């Protein structure tokens, strides 16, 4: 019988981790702008291919993903 | 620059290029503005902008930047606008109304390609906001704003954006509550599973007992964290002696929770925790859906979002400096340039005023002012710069007083009770009486079960499906409206709309277009050949009046024009076919103020000889006829206009009698007229556009403001209608009535479920499993019913269901 209780406790812990992840995603603003995020994911990743025209992309330029 | 005849789309903005196409880089552009933006973007390796969406740009008249953003160099203003500034790095957030597609997001978030001083930028699409982090050493705040303006993403900076107190924090509460409810719902369902299978042995008994305890632990956050909003709102309602729908819900939650705790602890049953968690989960979905509103639109605007942040002060020595508006005092001398707003009542001391009061009065013909005359706040100068001496402080000006005379917002809309209020009061009363009567009856039959039956009634009567009805029906209607260019403040406005029986319309800017004219050539005293001289001349001007004249004149091959000049708010002149042609105001063309001609006339002279005039009239909106006729069948129509009664004969056919057409109305007259109609017990909807309608909009049961650009200023109202969707107005009203019928239908549906549940409860047979099936079933079926019905209704009324591209 103890086996079931251990399993239940374990499953609750896993579920709580999921809940924590959900809280984190809400807090970091992922639900604030659903349209923006849906579009942003389709953008091409930045490649340093523009060397011939303008100045090369700076090393410290932040990734354009939306994490605050 | 090659000019071409034919139809083609501008590569940048996608509009018809018309007769003058600019070819650049093998692409076609409609104007030099679009071409310039393309040049900037392609030069910085940002052509991805054009790959994401076809024609992502926005066409705007390209105003010279000039000194427009000078005020951003002022240290005090800078500190107020910046969110944060430290160690040479600053952060700022702007409202940018022209954000509209994925290309916009891409460009703004890749703005560092245009200027390396910009370190990071993030777009919040739903709010049309963008936040920028930049290095002060490489780009100034003003430089950033000018860069944005140069690619047609000029931020909207007003007095309101400086006022930090008006900024709202994002409320993510409902997500947390929903998350907790969902988490507990899933787990409680699992732990309740053994009790659904009626196995009876000692081992199972042990599991059930432990799972019961777990259910209680999981039920506590559901009832008291996720459900706290219902308790608070029920309590607030009771304090105001008002029974809201949340009261029976709160009672239901408490009954569910404590009955379950009792059953589990006493070992008499498995409890109703699964029903409680499911109920809460569905209720919160309804709350979340109800909370989705148009974040980028503002329905509560006051003068602060209309006024500039700073003015140009002229010192005694004639030096110009920037002064934050809040420091503006009477007696100060300020400079107002073309297209700038007059921030306070003032006296004109230098220059020639040509004041456009279109926002204040809805009348777009500029008013001439000469030195020494008083100018009221709210007008825009259209013409060369003028100098003014301030007479009254900003907060005491006539314009701002219009806002300040309004009562608090809460006192409004007490003309009727909303449908749900009436029903929930009735519902609560019936349930409480029923619980009492059954309780007493069971007391005589079997006293030990009386308490159980009473709690069962309170549980099953919890109006979950009823509470879901409103957010999903009116909320669904709100979304359908939004996709068709009609934005309501919140879903309850749809209900207000459905109850309207009287419609009051403003004329100028509402029935008529503010920037589109009909030209009448009857008084033009030139021969046919000269028509083409005039037509070739106005072809070079994009002013709406020139466009109207151009369209009215007969088609002919254009002649070359030399020396073309456009004088702001005066007219145009140039030499065509060897003749010097002038077109414009009386003063400009004739050199004197004309008499005896209607307002809004344009005068013509050829080689200095006056050659008659052209009468311009505002065009009525497309579909006005159909809208007025179809609304006239169901509603009592009234017209309130600030203009003279010249249009009375043209409009009379749409209105029941001439008494309903009122001209020469001041803003206060309009307000009083609406108040009088409401006093007669009528449910009034007011449609207007300008600030002169603000009072009447506010006073009405449902105020709709009509705007060419919904993201720009509109007076505070309940709904904003995109001007080009005016023809759908009567369809919107019809749809709101359909929505209301849907609400009544689905309410009867949920009552049907309640009756089934109550029959179980009263007979003492409500088992946890019955309630666990009945409650989600009723919620889901009600939501499905409403969603499908709303979809069908919008298809039938030919309203768009998907977003227009």
Features:
heterodimer, A: 68 residues, 0% strand, B: 805 residues, Alpha-Beta Plaits, Calcium-transporting ATPase, cytoplasmic transduction domain A, 7-stranded mixed β-sheet, 18% strand
Could you give a short description of this structure?
Chain A is an all-alpha fold and 68 residues long. Chain A has helices at residues 2-27, 34-40. Chain A is elongated.
Q: Would you write up a description of this structure?
A:
The complex is a heterodimer of chains A (68) and B (805). Chain A has 68 residues and is mostly helical. Chain A has a domain of 29 residues. In chain A, 49% of the residues lie in helices and 0% in strands. Chain A has two helices and no strands. The termini of chain A are far apart. With 805 residues, chain B is α+β, with helices and mostly antiparallel strands. Chain B has six domains: 97 residues, Alpha-Beta Plaits (2-Layer Sandwich), CATH 3.30.70; 123 residues; 98 residues, Calcium-transporting ATPase, cytoplasmic transduction domain A (Distorted Sandwich), CATH 2.70.150.10; 141 residues, no CATH class; 138 residues, Rossmann fold (3-Layer(aba) Sandwich); 107 residues, 3-Layer(aba) Sandwich (Calcium-transporting ATPase, cytoplasmic domain N). Chain B is 43% helix and 18% strand. Chain B contains 26 helices and 28 strands. Chain B is elongated and about 110 Å long. Chain B starts with 21 loop residues before the first strand and ends in a 9-residue tail after the last helix. The N terminus of chain B is likely disordered. The chains are: A mainly alpha (68), B alpha+beta (805).
Number of helices of chain B: 26
The count of strands of chain B amounts to: 28
Which blocks of ≥5 consecutive residues of chain A have pLDDT under 50? 49-68
Overall pLDDT metric of chain A: 71
How is the largest sheet of chain B built, in terms of strand order? 16-28-27-26-17-24-25
Output the structural class of chain B. alpha+beta
End-to-end C-alpha gap of chain A = 47 Å
Largest sheet of chain B: 7 strands, mixed
The helical percent of chain A reads: 40-55%
